[in-house]
Structures are given as C-alpha cells and as structure tokens.
C-alpha cells in the first residue's frame, strides 16, 4: 500500500492548562476526501494548522508528504492549497488579480498565472466576474474564489476549514459540486466541518472529534451503521412534556434520546415505531421519520449535538 500523504501518531497541542488536541492518530491516503467532523472548539482547526506547518505541535509524530512540518514547513506548504474558515481575499484587487497575486507568493511567473487564472475562474464559474471588485461578489462567489485561489499552485493536498459556513443552501450545493469535481480529478481533500450533511456529501472517510479526541473513525455509512439505527423518529410533545412522556415510550425502538425540543426514537422501522407511539395514545404535536445521520452518531458518542 502506498505511503499515506498525511500521518499522525499521538498528535497533541497544549496551550497552558488547555489541551486542544489530545493524542490523535489518523492517516490520509492520496486522492482521498478525508473529514474531521466535530463541534466548534473540538480541535479541528488546530489540527489543520499543525498539518500546514503554521502551528508547532506539543507532542506526537506528524508527517505530510513524507516530511515533518516542524522541519520542512515551506517545502510542505508549496504543495498545499489552503481554504481558511474566513475568506481572506484582498478587497483592493479584482477577482482575477486575487488569483494572480496569490500565485506570485509561490514564485510562479505571470506567463503561467494568466492562463492558469483563466482556468480557475472557469472552474469556479466566475469567468464573467474576472474584472469585478471582490466586494461586489456574493458570499458563495467569494468562497468559490477562495477555493480557486487555493488551487493556483496545483496542490497535492487541498485543506478546507469549514468550507460552507455562512452560505445559503443553493450556494452550498454549488460549492459541493466544485469540490466533488476536484475529488474526481484525484485531488486529496482534507475537510473540517460541523455540518453532518456536508461530511456525508464530501468525505470518503472521516474522524469524529470532540474535546481534542477521536470518538470514531470510518466512512459515513460505516459510522451510521455501527453507532445508530437505520431510521430515527422525531416526536415533539412540547418542551414541558417531552421529559415526562419519554418514560411512556419504553420499548418503542432500540433507544430514545430526549433533547430540549424533541424526543428521538432510534429504530429500524420508523413508520412502525410512529404507529406504536400513536397506539399508546401519546399523539405528538409533530412527528418526522427520517434516516439516521452523522448527527445521530455524534449524539450517541458524546451525548450532545454537533452545534452545541
């Protein structure tokens, strides 16, 4: 088997008395779309910064493209594309100029960057905006431009930190399509997110992280199969009644979970479970039968939702 492009063993980052990353192990293979899924503050961004060589680790081993970021940071970054949480585009430059000027940081000549920028604008569906001011772009356009800029050096690994935070559903789906095309072309993607649907859409394999530790690892389908049921019934009886009613749901489904606004009933047959709830005369205010998601996996592993 080929050597992984990223390998971490016992990776740690400590700030005084606070441990942000607590001894995690993982590997990323070439051409894979790998995800770090967890709530804000779980240690995802800290891990990304250590991979990129912009943050020193406190302990453990880490190699990226066969090199240690502590010793070969510039060499590693030459082969990385980075899409940060917040768009850091230069508002003083126009759209095409943002790509060209960023490429100059890698020492790339303008003779290469001009045709390359045109390719990237086409990829990002921004050709018509090439000479527009960055401030005139929508949030989704700015995000696509940030990704296009991160591809200017033809990176072996593209790192995306919360790539669709703040975007509307339509813009998210357009961005997912662009990233899926990169994945099909063989680019290695490393994605952090707290959106379970995003992880399911983009990631071949992922780790679920909480408080700097890995709670589970596998493909989205594998994690759901191992840690949840096929379906979930969401029932609402009112915030004052949910805790009282849950005892009457004993035996309905494999297990139940009480949240502030609803009760989750985990089962392999949601419709049958809902029929049983109504047969017991409980009659929820609202009900929904859906398939299990990575959110349910995280709730099972940690007792809280991804957005807590």
UniProtKB/TrEMBL annotation:
InterPro entries named among the record's database cross-references: AAA+_ATPase, ABC_transporter-like_ATP-bd, ABC_transporter-like_CS, ABC_transporter_ATP-binding, P-loop_NTPase
SMART domains registered for this protein in UniProt: AAA
GO process annotations (BP): response to antibiotic
Keywords: Antibiotic resistance, ATP-binding, Cell membrane, Membrane, Nucleotide-binding, Translocase, Transport
Membrane topology, as annotated: Peripheral membrane protein
Gene3D superfamilies: P-loop containing nucleotide triphosphate hydrolases (3.40.50.300)
ABC transporter domain span: 6-236
Pfam families referenced in this protein's UniProt entry, alphabetically: ABC_tran
Localisation: Cell membrane
Major localization listed first in the record, in broad terms: membrane
Similarity remark: Belongs to the ABC transporter superfamily.
UniProt name for this protein: Lipooligosaccharide transport system ATP-binding protein
Record organism: Ornithinimicrobium humiphilum
């Amino acid at each position: 088997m080929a050597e992984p492009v990223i390998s971490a063993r016992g990776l740690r980052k400590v700030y005084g008395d606070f441990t942000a990353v607590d001894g995690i192990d993982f590997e990323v293979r070439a051409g894979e779309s790998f995800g770090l899924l967890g709530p804000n503050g779980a240690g995802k961004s800290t891990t990304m910064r250590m991979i990129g060589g912009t943050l020193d680790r406190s302990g453990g081993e880490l190699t990226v493209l066969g090199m240690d970021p502590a010793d070969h940071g510039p060499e590693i970054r030459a082969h990385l594309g980075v899409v940060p949480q917040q768009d850091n585009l230069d508002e003083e430059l126009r759209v095409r100029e943002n790509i060209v000027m960023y490429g100059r940081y890698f020492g790339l000549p303008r003779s290469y960057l001009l045709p390359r920028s045109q390719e990237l604008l086409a990829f990002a569906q921004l050709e018509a905006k090439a000479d527009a001011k960055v401030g005139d772009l929508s949030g989704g356009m700015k995000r696509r431009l940030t990704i296009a800029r991160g591809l200017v050096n033809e990176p072996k690994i593209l790192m995306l930190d919360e790539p669709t935070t703040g975007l509307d559903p339509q813009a998210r789906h357009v961005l997912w399509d662009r990233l899926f095309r990169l994945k099909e072309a063989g680019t290695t993607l490393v994605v952090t997110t707290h959106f379970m649907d995003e992880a399911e859409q983009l990631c071949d394999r992922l780790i679920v992280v909480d408080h700097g530790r890995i709670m589970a690892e596998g493909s989205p389908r594998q994690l759901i199969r191992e840690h949840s049921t096929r379906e979930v019934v969401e029932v609402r009886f009112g915030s004052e009644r949910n805790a009282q009613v849950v005892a009457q749901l004993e035996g309905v489904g494999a297990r139940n979970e009480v949240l502030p606004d609803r009760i989750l009933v985990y089962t392999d047959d949601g419709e049958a479970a809902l029929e049983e709830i109504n047969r017991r005369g409980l009659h929820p205010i609202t009900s929904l039968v859906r398939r299990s998601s990575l959110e349910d996996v995280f709730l099972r592993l940690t007792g809280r939702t991804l957005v807590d």
